[in-house]
């Protein structure tokens, strides 16, 4: 079974979006480089970021997101971003009216069930959990193996926290990867058990 990895770009003060759910400059590093990160040609990063991010993206089998993110993106029009095979949406509501039942999205109540579903779908590939409220809940449940952050040099001041509403202490190991890209610092931590 693959690792469960909590991941997102984050401001230096710990936010993944502002109070209006807007990322502001958090994703500028994804369009400010000269090396295409995917086939779309819209994402271009520095060579250093590409060498770190692309192999990680290639290992992701499933991404877990909350219903709020799903709704904000209009469900990516039924096509998981980044060429992923499946997405698991943590929600207590059914799929939207008119949703294509053949789309590779799985609507699951609760983070434990979401991780179990994602691991089954991913096999030995990585299960990625979007940072924020759902990611924090998965961390609090003791189900996260690794935390990855793309730290962007901006202070948002307030907004949506990387770890959501986690109110307990969780220890991480020392970072085992620290990569400096252009306008981003890539960090990777194992979760201490």
TrEMBL record:
SUPFAM superfamilies: Dihydrofolate reductase-like
Domain of life the protein comes from: Bacteria
InterPro entries, A to Z: DHFR-like_dom_sf, RibDG_C
Record GO biological process: riboflavin biosynthetic process
Classification via Pfam families: RibD_C (PF01872)
Domain spans labelled Bacterial bifunctional deaminase-reductase C-terminal: 110-176
An example molecular function term from Gene Ontology annotations: 5-amino-6-(5-phosphoribosylamino)uracil reductase activity
Identification of the protein by name: Bacterial bifunctional deaminase-reductase C-terminal domain-containing protein
Originating species: Streptomyces venezuelae (strain ATCC 10712 / CBS 650.69 / DSM 40230 / JCM 4526 / NBRC 13096 / PD 04745)
């Amino acid at each position: 079974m693959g690792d469960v990895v909590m991941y997102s770009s984050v401001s230096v003060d710990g936010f993944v979006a502002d109070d209006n759910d807007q990322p502001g400059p958090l994703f500028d590093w994804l369009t400010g480089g000269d090396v295409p990160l995917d086939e779309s040609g819209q994402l271009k990063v520095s060579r250093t970021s590409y060498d770190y991010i692309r192999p990680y993206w290639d290992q992701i089998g499933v991404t877990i997101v909350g219903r709020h993110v799903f709704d904000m993106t209009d469900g990516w029009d039924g096509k998981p971003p980044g060429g992923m095979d499946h997405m698991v949406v943590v929600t207590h509501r059914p799929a939207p009216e008119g949703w294509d039942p053949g789309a590779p999205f799985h609507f699951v109540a609760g983070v434990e069930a979401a991780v179990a579903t994602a691991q089954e779908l991913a096999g030995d590939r990585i299960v990625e959990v979007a940072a924020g409220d759902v990611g924090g809940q998965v961390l609090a449940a003791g189900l996260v193996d690794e935390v990855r952050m793309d730290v962007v040099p901006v202070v948002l001041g307030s907004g949506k926290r990387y770890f959501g509403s986690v109110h307990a202490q969780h220890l991480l190991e020392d970072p085992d990867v620290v990569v400096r890209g252009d306008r981003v610092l890539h960090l990777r931590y194992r979760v201490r058990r």
